[in-house]
Design goal:
The chain is α/β, with parallel strands linked by helices. It is built from 11 helices and 15 strands. The protein has 2 domains: 12-141 and 277-329, Quinone Oxidoreductase, Chain A, domain 1 (Alpha-Beta Complex), CATH 3.90.180.10; 142-273, NAD(P)-binding Rossmann-like Domain (Rossmann fold, 3-Layer(aba) Sandwich). Helices cover 25% and strands 23% of the residues. The structure holds NADP nicotinamide-adenine-dinucleotide phosphate and zinc ion (ZN) (2 copies).
Length: 333
C-alpha cells in the first residue's frame, strides 16, 4: 500500500526503516480491540531506521546516523507535563506513532510497518554505534515501558520485584530488574516458560495456578509489574505485595477486576498504571542498555509473516519479541 509521508520540515528527520518490533498493542489496534481504528491502520512503534536526510535546523542527527522511534512522534511541548519530560502524558494530547490524529498533516499517523518515516527530531532517539539493531528495536516500547516504573519506584539491589506475564514487555522487565540486582519472580500461565524465566535471571517462576506458592509469597514484593494484555483477576497479586508496595499495571486497558478495598486498606497497598516513558527517559533506557549489552530476545520475521506472528503472540507463544526485518521491502538498487 502507498502512504504519503510529509515533506521534510526544518526540524524533521527522514528515516529509512530497517527494523520494527511487533508489540501486542499493534494487535489490539488492527483487531479493533480498543475501539474502532482509523483506516488504513499502519502499526509499528518499535522502529530503528537509518537517517537519509535532515531538515535545515536539525542538530541531533546527520545523514547515516541510526535513529529510533518509539510510541510517540509529537506533543505540545509547552504544557506542564511536557516541560517535565513527560510527553507521553501531554495535557493537550500526545501524538502517538500510529493511529493518532496528526496535527501536521490533518490526517492520522502511520507507524513503522513502512519503508520510510518523517519525524521531528525531538522524538527520534539516538542509537549508539555498535548496538544490535534488530534486538534494540523492542527497547523503544517494551524496554521503556518496564524501565520507567523501575525508575519511578526506585528499584534497588535486593528488592523483590514480581513480573506478571512473560511476553515482550515481561521478558524486558525481567532483564531490567535483574540488571538492578533485584530479586525477580515471574508469574506465568505457561508451564513451558518456567525454564526461560530462570535463564533470563529470575530467581523463581510461579504458575498462577500454584496456590501453595502464592500463599508462601504473601506480603513479599516491593514492586509488581503486570503485563497481561486483558483484564484479569488482580487480587491474588495484590495479596503478594508488601505493606506500602505497588502493583503497576502496564497491560490491560479495561476496568480492573476484583480488587478488594479491604486488602488495600489493611495493607496500605497501591494499584496504579504507567504508560511508556518520556523522550529523555527513552534515551536513558537506550543508553543504559547499550552500556550493559541488554537487548531483547527476538525472532526476526519477514513482513509477509505478520499474520502468523500475531497469532503466535496472542497464543502466548512468542519468545520473546517478533521484529520485522524491513529489508525485503526495499527496492533493489
Ligand atoms: P505479549 O508479548 O503478548 O505478552 C503478554 C503476556 O501476558 C503473555 O505472553 C502471557 O505470558 C501473559 N498472559 C496472561 N494472560 C493472558 C491472556 N489472556 N492472553 C494473552 N497473554 C496472557 O504482550 P506485550 O507486547 O508484552 O504487551 C502486553 C500488554 O501491554 C498489551 O496489552 C500491550 O498493549 C500493553 N502495552 C502497554 C504499554 C504501556 O505503555 N503501558 C506499552 C506497550 C504495551 P505468560 O505465558 O507468561 O502467562
Ligand atoms: Zn508497544
Ligand atoms: Zn504537552
Amino acid at each position: 500500500m502507498q502512504i504519503e509521508r510529509r515533506a521534510l520540515g526544518a526540524n524533521d528527520v527522514l528515516l529509512d526503516v530497517l527494523y520494527c518490533g511487533v508489540c501486542h498493542s499493534d494487535i489490539h489496534h488492527v483487531r479493533s480491540e480498543w475501539g474502532p481504528d482509523r483506516y488504513p491502520c499502519v502499526p509499528g512503534h518499535e522502529i530503528i531506521g537509518r537517517v537519509l536526510a535532515v531538515g535545515s535546523a536539525v542538530t541531533k542527527f546527520k545523514v547515516g546516523d541510526i535513529g529510533g522511534v518509539g510510541c510517540m512522534v509529537d506533543s505540545c511541548r509547552t504544557c506542564d507535563n511536557c516541560l517535565a519530560d513527560r510527553e507521553q502524558n501531554c495535557l493537550n494530547g500526545v501524538t502517538l506513532t500510529y493511529n493518532s490524529p496528526d496535527k501536521v498533516s490533518g490526517g492520522h499517523t502511520f507507524g513503522g510497518y513502512s519503508d520510510k518515516m518523517v519525524v521531528t527530531e525531538h522524538f527520534v532517539i539516538r542509537i549508539p554505534p555498535g548496538m544490535d539493531l534488530a534486538a534494540t528495536a523492542p527497547l523503544l516500547c517494551a524496554g521503556i515501558t518496564t524501565f520507567s516504573p523501575m525508575q519511578y519506584w526506585r528499584v534497588e539491589p535486593g528488592q523483590r520485584v514480581g513480573v506478571v506475564g512473560l511476553g515482550g514487555l515481561g521478558h524486558m522487565a525481567v532483564k531490567l530488574a535483574v540488571a538492578r540486582r533485584a530479586e525477580v519472580t515471574v508469574f506465568t500461565t505457561s508451564p513451558g516458560k518456567i525454564a526461560d524465566a530462570k535463564r533470563l535471571g529470575a530467581r523463581e517462576a510461579v504458575l498462577w495456578s500454584d496456590s501453595e506458592a502464592m500463599k508462601r509469597l504473601a506480603n513479599h514484593f516491593d514492586l509488581l509489574i503486570t503485563t497481561v494484555p486483558r483484564a484479569f483477576s488482580m487480587q491474588q497479586f495484590v495479596d503478594v505485595l508488601k505493606l506500602d508496595a505497588t502493583l503497576v499495571n502496564v497491560g490491560a486497558l479495561e476496568d480492573l477486576q476484583s480488587v478488594s478495598g479491604r486488602s488495600l486498606l489493611f495493607g496500605r497497598k497501591n494499584v496504579t498504571g504507567s504508560m511508556i516513558g518520556g523522550i529523555a527517559e527513552t534515551q536513558e533506557v537506550i543508553d543504559y542498555c547499550a552500556a550493559r549489552n541488554i537487548k531483547a530476545d527476538i525472532e526476526l520475521i519477514r513482513p509477509d509473516q505478520i499474520n502468523e506472528a500475531y497469532d503466535r503472540v496472542v497464543n502466548r507463544d512468542v519468545r520473546y519479541r517478533f521484529v520485522i526485518d524491513m529489508a525485503s521491502l526495499k527496492t533493489p538498487a
